[in-house]
Structures are given as structure tokens and as C-alpha cells.
Amino acid sequence: MLNLNLDRNLDRLNNRLPSQKVQEIGLLFHKNWLKLSFKPVTIFVSIVLLTSLMMVLAIAPQPTFAALPTKSAIKDPRIILRNALPIDSESLRDVQHTLEQMPRQANLKRWSNLKKDVEEITSSLSQNQANLIAEANSDRKSAITEHLTSLNTALVPLQEAIAIKDRNSVKSLSEKALDYVGLVESDLIKEFPFEIPAKYASLPKLKGRALVELTTEKGSAIITVDGYSAPVNAGQFVDLVQKGFYDGLTFTRADENYYLQTGDPDGAADGYIDPKSGKSRNVPIEVRLPDQKLPVYGKTFEEMGLYGSLPVLPFAAFGTVAMAHPNDDPNAGSSQFFIYLFESELTPAGLNLLDGNYTVFGYVTEGKETLDKLRLGDKVISARVISGAENLVK
Hints:
This protein is of the alpha+beta class. It folds into two domains: about 85-185, Oxygen-evolving enhancer protein 3 (PsbQ), four-helix up-down bundle (Four Helix Bundle (Hemerythrin (Met), subunit A)), CATH 1.20.120; about 200-394, Beta Barrel (Cyclophilin), CATH 2.40.100.10. It has eleven helices and twelve strands.
């Protein structure tokens, strides 16, 4: 069973990487903050103590808070996944981002802005529809035409809700429209956007996306697996799902409101043993930066000095799914994965030192209530690929 450096007990801090030590102490301080008296002296002493501990442990010469986000981090996995799609259509991205801002605009009662935004979206789609259809591959033209029609239809009740200032309906209606935006964006992807290094050619690869249904004793959840951002790790996971590897396994590590881990097979092995070679089939750490098409392989952000950098798939959303690896070898992931249970107070988005040090390959996009129920020892009944199996290349 792999130790992920995810425990928050002080007696285990000596085995952590420097940045993880700092984060752990911050988390412990944050958890115990509410127990403190809010007297000025107590607050001052607490801050001094925390700062001193950070200075002692943070031996690397980077600013402790270098990772503070310059703007609000995106916490919605659906938005993260849409942004991760490899497309270049600026007009469609503008439609997407405008729709994503509408629930906030409605909460602030900016009805004139919303009215203008939805009119501009409708106009943009009308002007660009022919070009969008022309950009798609011949085998996707029918699908993109259908999805654009559905998108335009979905905008009608949204426009009506804005006209009558129905704040409660704007969120659900804009999200429905965004579902079709995501489908249109997927229709525009002509081919897999990069060549996977020959070093990993023998490993399964997911060249696209897949949906995996994880059925447990406490309910089911759907994982959207993103092979565009982490094809090797995503391929490893989907291949093992197809083999039935996870069926019957238990959650061997768990911390409520922090993470769940499974994938540890019975016996001495920590991962999947390839029956052909008799050896563990391992995958490298694989993380893509926003300005790069090809993921970074083999090194963590910490090793490369990329402190505070946010990958395309960050640990910013409840239900982030990532590959586990031994503490001393980020290139020895195999079958064990963990589901990150984001909690804004303990692990703020944009200030999470797991980013770039573990490979995120997907997000739980349905069934989040199941994650709240799962505990140590609960069993995975089955894991099944329900769509996207054709994107797996062995």
C-alpha cells in the first residue's frame, strides 16, 4: 500500500518533502484555529509560531506563499475539463466563458449585462455556425450541426429567465447550454494533439476521453477520464478498469474531507503485475501546463522548481482523481489512485502543493454525494467504462 504523504499527523512530517511539510503544518494550524481563543495575544503568538515553523522546514529558497492565486481559482470540474479540451476556436471559447459567468452575474443582479451577453452569444453563434461546421472533420459534421441546434434551443429559456429576472433558473439553464458547448468543442477536435514519447509507447494510452462508472457499497460515481492531458496515466487506469482489476477492492486509505485511496491488490504487490513480464507495470508522472500541448514527463513541479504553477488539471475541485506513487519515485505509479476531497478551508484552490507532484487524470463529474459517504474499508463493487472505450490504444 502506497503512502501518499497525505496524512496530517505531526509525527509523520519528518518523512515529507519540504513543501509538503509546510502545507501539512498549515493544515493542522487551520484545523485547530477554531479551538483557539480569539484574544489578540493568542492570535499574535499563533501566527508567530506558524511562521517560525514554516521558516525552519521550508529549506528551499522560494517564498512560502508563492502559490497564492492572483484571481479566484476555478473549482468546477466541468469548467476545468472544458478548458482542457485542445481546441482553437476563440468565438466558441468566448461563448463558453460568458455562459460560465452568468450564475455570478445573476446573483449580483446584473440583468442588463446578462441581457446583452445572451444577445451577443446568439449573434455570435449565428455568424459563426457555418465556419464551425466547416472546421469539423467530415465524420463529425452531422454531430456538430445537431449540437449547435440544441445549443441555440437551450438559449431560448435562458434568455426568457433573464428577461423576467428569474435568478434561481439562470444557473441550471446556463449549465444546460454549457453541456452543448462542451459537445460542440469536442466535435471540433480533429486528431489527438501530440505524439506521446516513444519511451511510453508500450503502455496503454487513452487518446481522448472516457467515462468510468465506479460502483461502491455506498453508491455510484462517474469519473470523466481525460486522455488529452494525461494519456498514459488515463490509459493505464481505463485499461485496468476494462480488465476488472478494481472489482472487489477496498478503500485502503481514507481521511474524511481530504482523500480516498483504492487500487491496492491483494498480496505483496503494490500495483498491477503484467502477466506477460511478471513485473509491475508502472506509469510516469505526467502533467500538462496550460501553455504546452505536450505534458511534462518524469519530473515533478517541485523537482523542476515550478513552485506555484497550476497545471491544466489542478487539484482544485472536489472529486479530483489522481494516480498514487511511492514517496521517493514519482515514476512508479501503477494501479493505486486517490480521489481528492476538496475542502476550501483546509486545502484552498490555487494554493495546493499537490499540483504538479501527482498526475491528475480525471474528475468525478456525477455522484459526488457518494464520495461523502465512503469510508476506510468500503468496497468497490465494480468499475466499468461506459463510454470512450474506443479511445483506448494498447
